[in-house]
Amino acid sequence: MKEKKMLKEKERTEIHVQDTSDKMSKVLEFAMEASRVLLCNGAEIFRVEETVEHICRRFDIKGVDTFVLSNGIFITAHDGTKEVFARVKHVPMRGINLGIVTEVNNLSREISSGKVDLDEAWMILKKIEKMPPNNNWFRIIASGVGSATFAYLLGANFWECMLTVLSGMLLFAGVIFAEKHNISKILVNLLGGAFITILALIYCNIGLPFVLRQDKLLVGSILPLVPGVAFTNSIRDIARSDFLSGTVKMIDALLVFVYIAIGVGTVLAGFDGLRGGMLQ
What we know:
Oligomer: single chain
Structural class: mainly alpha
Low-confidence stretches: 10-18
Strand order of the largest sheet: 1-2-3
Shape: elongated
Helix content: over 70%
């Protein structure tokens, strides 16, 4: 009888341990997926780490350690026994979608408050990840308006702002084309800088009946290529002592500025050389 009792207790313990292991595995898998969606859509490092902690705390997962880099996530947890659970995910750096980041943050809050269980959370997360981006025409028009606004803030006149709208729209149409065909970011920024410079030179040299300043046209039109959110996030990461991730993001943003400058400088140098040759 004693042996049977001990066997039953052992079986119960094993079942409990197995259930706990399965639960931890599922929770960590979901936490990893939610953090991946956040990171690849431009969320800050601290936000990704906090999301993992909130999700694990809601489902009573303790002993959780999270280490997040700009392109990688490492999560470990233990259940009080010798067994350790670990998840590692490589996250390639890509564009920014703050709409998806906001939705995942809202989902994390609902999980923390107990409004959503794990199965429902999985379904919602899959829907969030499949959220379509804004309509391309909306993005193109917004790019043109943003470019003109920036040019106006820098002292552009009415006609310069109008031409900047056109340049910004044409530039972002090219960016969307590049996104669809997976063209290298280096090439996009080099050609984008060159394209905007060519347009500015055309505007200033075709004899339009109003005053145009090349620098205002250039600075305003280049706005769609500027990685403002990425640069700001890198500063926020560094301010929170995430030096490695912040430095990587900052270098990535600074390199974009370099690519744009090379594109602009190459066209301007070529134009000056050509004009000098024609004058001679």
